[in-house]
Write a structure and sequence with these properties.
By secondary structure, this protein is α/β, with parallel strands linked by helices. Helices cover 52% and strands 9% of the residues. The strands form 2 sheets. Strands 2-3-4-1-5 form a 5-stranded parallel β-sheet, sandwiched between helices. A hairpin with a 5-residue loop joins strand 7 and strand 8.
């Protein structure tokens, strides 16, 4: 069939044509914004889950919802080597430029001055240029070098500026488990201040299943600051819709047995559904997608996953780290016991500590509980088994 009209979009953070199975999280986010617009409080939100379940897509949807409601929004990714302060400044600058009009009120001018203080990164003229004279604005601080204090001042003034129009400020951070300790602490403190003082400000975090524990270690009261949502695979009904709705928009139908086959083969994982859906569409002659197409598409789709989604992660591991991953594979989706993995490798858990820690830092495994580890990628054990086959 025509690849140009293929409605499936596998890729990192790409919004699918049919965003299904996430109504509860979208509703929670929307209600939180609505409450703040009515000067009521709402908790910030944390999304957790394995890779490929759609956390980044959902966080992007949160940003679109905020933008449609004229909120100041910034979405950044942790773990890129860039400090949170710099990433937020770069993401916020275009949003604030839109507010910098000759008719801007005092709250907006104060917010712009605070923002200019917040970051040390400047343009070629030596300042963040908004086309407004801010010299008459009192120094609002946010330049102490202490991220917790500076982010609090920035959040206060930006949310106050947004409130002039009945809106608010939304800060969204993907891969939040990779934030530095001081960055996690600052975001928790910001969410706490916003709730206590009634600022129209909300924080949205997305990360691996270990994120709640990491937040708790940063601030002991973090469980009271956020609503936590575990994002997993789609249920069979939603997985069916994820396949059939995009095709239906192109006047193409799936046969029931073809849909059932792909749903079962993918386990309902959103990224896998997109990969298999795209491959099935491309190999089909049309005008419908039948079981034969699905079987061939599944083979092609799995090959795409193996050569891209899985192999890129596998090749990031050293030989010693791959041995550790192989020793986890017999447990399937896991979790695995650290002591049992050590026994399989004939070593003590202490000697394997560096390999385990390195794999966690690389985002290949995580620790769901003390003494346990698990893959961050669904079905990674199956991929490893395929590498061991002759």
């Amino acid at each position: 069939m025509d690849e140009l009209s293929n409605p499936y979009s596998p890729g990192a953070g790409l919004r699918p044509a049919a965003l299904v199975g996430r109504d509860s999280e979208i509703r929670t986010w929307t209600v939180a914004l609505e409450r703040m617009e009515k000067e009521r409080t709402a908790r910030s939100i944390v999304l957790t889950g394995l890779r490929g379940v759609g956390k980044t897509v959902l966080l992007g949807e949160f940003q679109r919802i905020g933008q449609r409601r004229n909120w100041i929004t910034a979405m950044v990714e942790a773990g890129t080597g860039q400090p949170l302060r710099t990433a937020l400044a770069q993401a916020l600058y275009p949003e604030l430029t839109d507010l910098a009009k000759p008719s801007a009120g005092e709250r907006i001018k104060k917010a712009l001055r605070t923002f200019s203080n917040f970051t040390v990164k400047v343009d070629e003229t030596g300042t963040w240029s908004f086309g407004l004279d801010l010299s008459d604005q009192p120094d609002a601080g946010a330049n102490t070098g202490n991220l917790e204090l500076d982010l609090g001042q920035l959040g206060r003034d930006l949310s106050a500026a947004a409130a002039e129009g009945g809106h608010g400020l939304a800060l969204l951070v993907d891969e939040a488990q990779d934030l530095r300790d001081d960055e996690l602490t600052a975001l928790c403190a910001l969410a706490h201040q916003a709730g206590q003082r009634g600022w129209p400000l909300i924080v949205g975090l997305a990360g691996l299943p270990s994120l709640p524990r990491v937040l708790s270690e940063a601030k002991s009261y973090s469980e009271r600051l956020f609503t936590f949502h575990l994002i997993g695979k789609l249920d069979p009904v939603a997985a069916h819709e994820a396949l059939t709705e995009p095709a239906g928009q192109e006047d193409v139908e799936w046969t029931d047995d073809a849909v059932q086959y792909v749903v079962e083969e993918t386990g309902g994982y959103p990224y896998f559904l997109q990969e298999y859906g795209q491959a099935t569409w491309n190999v089909a002659d049309g005008p419908s997608l039948d079981l034969a197409d699905a079987r061939l598409g599944a083979s092609v789709g799995q090959n795409h996953l193996d050569t891209g989604f899985y192999r890129s992660r596998w090749e990031r591991a050293t030989p010693a780290q791959r041995a550790y991953l192989r020793a986890m594979a017999p447990d399937g989706e896991g979790p695995s016991s650290s002591s049992e993995v050590a026994r399989r490798l004939g070593k003590t858990p202490t000697k394997l500590g560096p390999a385990r820690d390195a794999l966690i830092k690389k985002g290949l495994i995580y620790a769901p509980e003390h003494g346990q580890i698990a893959f961050t990628v669904p079905r990674m054990a199956d991929f490893i088994d395929r590498q061991l086959q002759p």
